């Protein structure tokens, strides 16, 4: 899976290829990692200060198209570091999203699991139903099995039913045991890839005339590169021969070697 970083075409030296992807009346929506992408990597994270010229480049681009900073840091920290309050910022790996127009963008990370929750509910009602005192409580994003009123002798069987379900669906489901209750929930995973796809939808950018462009350097950015593979552009930031990159492969389409190159790249997008 993925390509060797040394084989990636350079984003500035292959402007033709990029133009083809971005041409034809299409517009980019640009997602930017912060550390290592907009700032050089530093030993202490609080010293990862964005340069004035990079800040201006981001600002210029934000006047032309949607720009969103997606970081593993807390959203407010990113906003403070960026020093710009007119950008969309997704902190905590995209979990905490804020836009200047809408403020905090609510997203129900448990959404999209209605069918699974339904299926779990139906099955548990069937299997738990015969046990006196047991009850199945469907919730929005989970199903609770209460067994407080079930006799001591029968409780192990409730446990077994839940255990069997979990064993069968270990990829999709997790259980949180509570006080005389098993709470069965979809396994929700959130990463920068899911965040970018969510943002595209939330910002009404999930359209044929928009080309999502994601620029990042971290392993966590690979989720975004993968999410955009085939529909957008992934730009990996780094040197193939840097120690932190050694042995890595990437799902990105292009490479930029330094933050200076990122800055020049943002300027080419802003043209
Ligand atoms: Mg980074």
From TrEMBL:
EC identifiers of the protein: 3.1.3.12
The entry's keywords: Hydrolase, Magnesium, Metal-binding
Pathway(s): Glycan biosynthesis; trehalose biosynthesis
Source organism, top-level taxon: Bacteria
GO molecular function, one term: metal ion binding
Function: Removes the phosphate from trehalose 6-phosphate to produce free trehalose.
Family recorded in the similarity comment: Belongs to the trehalose phosphatase family.
NCBIfam families attached to this UniProt entry: HAD-SF-IIB, T6PP
Protein name: Trehalose 6-phosphate phosphatase
Source organism per UniProt: uncultured Rubrobacteraceae bacterium
């Amino acid at each position: 899976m993925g390509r060797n970083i040394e084989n990636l075409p350079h984003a500035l030296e292959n402007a033709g290829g990029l133009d083809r992807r971005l041409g034809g009346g299409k517009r980019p929506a640009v997602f930017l990692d912060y550390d290592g992408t907009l700032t050089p990597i530093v030993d202490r994270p609080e010293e990862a200060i964005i340069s004035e010229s990079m800040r201006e480049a981001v600002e210029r681009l934000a006047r032309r198209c949607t720009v969103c900073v997606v970081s593993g840091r807390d959203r407010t920290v990113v906003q403070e570091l960026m020093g710009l309050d007119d950008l969309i910022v997704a902190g905590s790996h995209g979990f905490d999203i804020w836009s200047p127009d809408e403020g905090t963008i609510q997203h129900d990370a448990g959404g999209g699991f209605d069918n699974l929750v339904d299926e779990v509910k139906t099955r548990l009602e069937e299997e738990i139903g015969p046990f006196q005192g047991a009850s199945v409580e469907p919730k929005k994003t989970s199903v609770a099995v209460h067994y407080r009123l079930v006799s001591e002798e029968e409780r192990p069987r409730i446990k077994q039913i839940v255990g069997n379900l979990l064993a069968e669906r270990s990829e999709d489901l997790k259980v949180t045991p509570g006080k005389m209750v098993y709470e069965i929930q979809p396994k929700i995973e959130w990463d920068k890839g899911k965040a970018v796809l969510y943002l595209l939808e939330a910002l009404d950018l999930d359209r044929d005339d928009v080309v999502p462009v994601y620029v990042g350097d971290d392993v966590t950015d690979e989720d975004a590169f993968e999410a955009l593979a085939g529909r957008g552009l992934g730009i990996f930031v780094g040197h193939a021969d840097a120690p932190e990159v050694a042995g890595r492969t990437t799902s990105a389409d292009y490479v930029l070697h330094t933050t200076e190159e990122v800055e020049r790249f943002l300027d080419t997008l802003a043209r």
